[in-house]
Amino acid sequence: MMETHTQISLAEQYAATLDWWRGAGVDCVFEDDVQSMLSDIEAPATKAAAASAPAEEKIETAPEPAISPKNLPGDMQSFRDWWMDPETPLPTGPSPRIAPRGETGAPLMLLVPMPETDDVDQLLSGPQGKMLASITLALGYDAGLAYFASAIPANITLPDWGALAADGLGTALHKHIELAKPDRVIMFGSKLPAMLGHDPAAPPEAFTDIAGIPALTTFAPDRLLDHPRQRARLWQRLLQWTA
């Protein structure tokens, strides 16, 4: 009598193999390489943490100002040469550069925003200069011995004082006053004190000091010329300042 073999499917063979291993007590899969048991758990958590983590902030270094202390001359003659040099970062325009006038160690320094419109050979040669000379004489100083300077070397239409401050103009102003070594300083113009680190909200005719030198701030010369009441107010402050 011939024996017949029942044909079984591949799925039945696979199931029978698993039953045989279970019957032998084997219920785990073993591999030669070390596997992380938490890999399937950690991966989603890691992805979630990465998604919620804030992006790294890029720290941008501010560019160095065009005018820096290390680039400024250390004596007055060299500073004046630098002031008149068209290659320096100081602002200029169609008007010529005008040098400051006076000697170091003057009893009074008068600092204005910029030269007058018609200045060519001498700083403050017009009506603003006449008013400043009158102030100097009224305070008891010889106008010929005072030191006259401007914050920028040329007359410019509507200068951007904010951009000039960012370029380091205040550093140049401070150095100029330091080298001039006057006994007192009058600053004309509301934009200049802020460049030297003083409170921009401070009222006009405020008393302060620059490089250890007593200073008084007031309105720009053109505004004083147009407003007699402000000139009178300045005069009262000057009397208090010099008393």
CATH superfamily of the domain at 89-242: Uracil-DNA glycosylase-like domain
Question: Biggest sheet: strands, sense, closure?
Answer: 5 strands, mixed
- How many distinct beta strands? 5
User: By helix and strand content, what is the structural category?
Assistant: alpha/beta
Q: Estimate the global geometry from the Cα principal axes.
A: rod-shaped
Average the pLDDT over all residues and give the rounded result: 84
CATH architecture of the domain at 89-242: 3-Layer(aba) Sandwich
Helix content: 25-40%
CATH topology of the domain at 89-242: Uracil-DNA Glycosylase, subunit E
Proportion in β-strands: 5-15%
> Can you write the helix and strand succession as a string?
HHHEHEHHEHEEHH
Commentary on this structure:
By secondary structure, the chain is an alpha/beta fold. The chain has a domain at 89-242: 3-Layer(aba) Sandwich (Uracil-DNA Glycosylase, subunit E). The chain contains 9 helices and 5 strands, in the order αααβαβααβαββαα. It has a 5-stranded mixed beta sheet. A hairpin with a 2-residue loop joins β4 (207-210) and β5 (213-218). The radius of gyration is 40 Å and the shape is rod-shaped.
